[in-house]
Amino acid sequence: MADEAPSSFPWEDCIERVRANDQRAARDLVAALQPTVFSIVRGRLPRGVAEEDLAQEVFMKVFTRLDQFRSEMPFEHWVCRIAVNTCIDALRRQARRPELRRADLSVEEEALWDRLHVDSGQSSPGETLAARELVARLLSQLTPRERMLIEWVDLEGKGTAEVCALTGWSKMILKVRLFRARRRLKTLLDKLERKETR
Q1: Which positions of the chain have pLDDT values less than 70?
Q2: How far is the C-alpha of 144 from the C-alpha of 91, rounded, in Å?
Q3: How buried is 17 (Cβ within 10 angstroms: 0-12 exposed, 13-18 middle, 19+ buried)?
Q4: Alpha carbon 72 to chain centroid, angstroms
Q5: DSSP secondary structure letters along the chain
C-alpha cells in the first residue's frame, strides 16, 4: 500500500486504521504524505533547520490531531494546512534577520546586481545561481505569510483556487494579502537599489 499513488490512496480506510492504532497503516499514511509534506517544507525551510526535523514536526502534529480531522475538506488539504502553519511557526521562532545591504552581497550577487542594471541578456549558470540566492535573501526579509504567498503564486505558479484551498482564505483576502506581499518585496528591492546608487 505504501507505494500506491496519493491520488488513488484509500485515505478514509487508512485514517480509520491509524485511529485504531494500526502501525502499518501509520507507516502507509506517512509514505503517502511524504512527497507533499517535504515539498512544502523545502519551499519554506528556515535557515539552520533540517527539513527532516521540520517534516517530522508536521507528522507529529498530523498524528496528534488526527481525531480533529473532519471530512469537510480533503485529508491532503488538511495536512497541507498543518505543514504550512508549522513552517510559518518555525520562521517566526527564528530570530529576525537584519535588513539586506549592498555590503552584505557576495561577489557573485553584486556582479549580478550590476549586470541587471546594464542589460537584460542571457545569464550564465553562475549568474542564475546568484540571482536565486539574491531572491532568497530578499524573501527571507518578508514575513512568513508574505514569503509563502510570493513563493506559491509568483515562483511556483500555483493558482488562486489552489492557494485558497491550502490556506482556507477567500479569493478577496488572498488578493489583498498577495498585493501587500508584492508591495513589501518591491519596497525591499527599491531600498537595495537606493543603497547601490549612493
Answers
A1: 1-7, 45-49, 93-133, 193-198
A2: 6
A3: middle
A4: 24
A5: -TTS-GGG--HHHHHHHHHTT-HHHHHHHHHHHHHHHHHHHHHTPPTT--HHHHHHHHHHHHHHTGGG--TTS-HHHHHHHHHHHHHHHHHHHSPPPPPP-GGGS-HHHHHHHHHHTT---PPPHHHHHHHHHHHHHHHTTS-HHHHHHIIIIIIS---HHHHHHHH---HHHHHHHHHHHHHHHHHHHHHHHHHHH-
Residue written as grid cell 507528522: 59
Residues ≥6 apart with Cβ < 8 Å to 46: 54, 87, 90, 91, 93, 94
Q: Cell 527599491 appears where?
A: 190
> In this structure, what C-alpha cell is assigned to residue 27?
507507516
pTM: 0.49
Distance separating alpha carbons of residues 84 and 76, to the nearest angstrom: 12
